Amino acid sequence: MTTSSADRASGQNVPDETRWPGLATPPHSALRARIAAALFRRAVRPLELRVTFPDGTVLGAGGPDSPEMRILRPSAFFHRLGVDAKIGFGESYMAGDWTASDLAEVLTPFGERMATVVPPVLQKFRRLAERTQPPSEENTLEGARANIHRHYDLSNDLFGAFLDPSMTYSSALFGLDDDLTAAQHRKIDSVLDYAGVREGSQVLEIGTGWGELAIRAAARGAHVTSLTISEEQRALATERIAAAGFADRVEVKLCDYRESSGRYDAVVSVEMIEAVGASYWPEFYRVIGERLRPGGRFGLQAITMDHDRMLAASRAYGWVHKYIFPGGLIPSVRSIEEGVKANTRLKLAGMREFGQDYARTLRWWRERFLHRWADIAGFGFDDVFRRMWEFYLAYSEAGFRSGYLRVHQFGYEATGR
């Protein structure tokens, strides 16, 4: 199927096929496109938004002031949706088939009804149409490095353009008057408290990020060994740690958690478990248990979803896997609690949830990303990348706003061996 003249008349740029294979030319399946159109129209009918088409058709239950989803290329949109809805919906935004007045506000009603978008009678057929994870994205030692490289090694300049000065890429924890940096420090201090980090603590951090947690742990008087498999992150984190005056207290290693050794008073990991992959969670927990001394503590921050949704997601390959986080799976609270219990001697000592803080964090990132786009484009990224990351940030924000996603901190204590 070629891009139609009506589609081109929308004024949207057609993606460069050499950089974005498959996006310039939508897939073609007339039957599936008709089915997708019928299902989409049914799904949006009760939602508090407006869906507008070039011919003047308006769908949805929203009034004139509600969020607007504008379908610019209906043919391409429904063909992408029909061939693979989990991937095609996001790809159609990347390709410019549709746009929105405010992307997160448009996506939030979909998140609120995620479990019922597909009619129950058709749920049993979903597995027939869903893709599975490619073997190359399995989180083996080699595969995990390749998966992390695809996201975190894009460019330190990219992340620096939209993150706050702490360079923290996880949910903040807001107080009454916090700006984002203060809220990120509040979050870090909270998980360090769960891990019992204090003067003289020997700390293992799994997932360095750009070094802010290690810096704040060192400022408490701890000695930190921080592990990352991102070369870009390690380079900048090392610079930032040295600039903060803690090079003698923090060592950043290019090392997979499975290759770690030693015993520590505390282990800390913030939003790294989502990249581990469900089949590797038991080993992740086992390694943490082995790294902790008796009486040691584990502080964990994790994005979570309901257990039944996690099980459904574990069987599917979606847009986020293909374009943003290959090999990952968001856990449920139940899966974490059961996994820790089955593979360690750790005892749960505390837990908190703050998903709406993540929605607020993501909105700040998205607004900053779009505001700084001219600078980001200068790093070599094109408009398709801009739409891809805008969709990723808005999709995530909508997930937390709707309650489909949450974020938790856990505190665990190691019992005697």
Descriptive report:
With 417 residues, the chain is an alpha/beta fold. The chain has helices at residues 5-8, 30-44, 74-83, 85-95, 103-112, 120-123, 126-129, 141-152, 156-162, 180-194, 212-219, 231-243, 281-291, 307-314, 319-323, 333-343, 355-371, 373-377, 383-402, and strands spanning 50-52, 58-59, 68-71, 98-100, 202-206, 223-228, 250-254, 264-270, 292-305, 346-353, 405-414. The strands form 2 sheets. The protein has a 7-stranded mixed sheet, with helices on both faces. α5 packs across α19 and α17 packs antiparallel against α19.
Keyword list:
417 residues; 19 helices; single chain; seven-stranded mixed β-sheet; Rossmann fold; 46% helix; disordered N terminus; globular; alpha/beta; 16% strand
- Considering the protein shown, what is the CATH homologous superfamily of the largest domain? Vaccinia Virus protein VP39
Secondary-structure-based class equals alpha/beta
> How many strands in all?
11
Instruction: Figure out the total of helices.
Output: 19
- Quaternary assembly: single chain
How many strands, which pairing sense, and closed or not: the largest β-sheet? 7 strands, mixed
Radius of gyration: 22 Å
Read across the widest sheet, the strand sequence of neighbours is 7-6-5-8-9-11-10
Instruction: Look at the structure and give the CATH class of the largest domain.
Output: Alpha Beta
Helix content: 40-55%
> What letter string, H or E per element, gives the SSE order?
HHEEEHHEHHHHHHEHEHEEHEHHHEHHHE
- Tertiary shape: globular
Task: Output mean pLDDT.
Answer: 91
> What's the number of domains?
2
Second CATH tier, the architecture of the largest domain: 3-Layer(aba) Sandwich
- State the low-pLDDT regions, or none: 1-11
The name of the CATH topology of the largest domain is Rossmann fold
Strand content of the residues, in percent?
Answer: 15-25%
In whole angstroms, the N-to-C terminal distance is: 64 Å
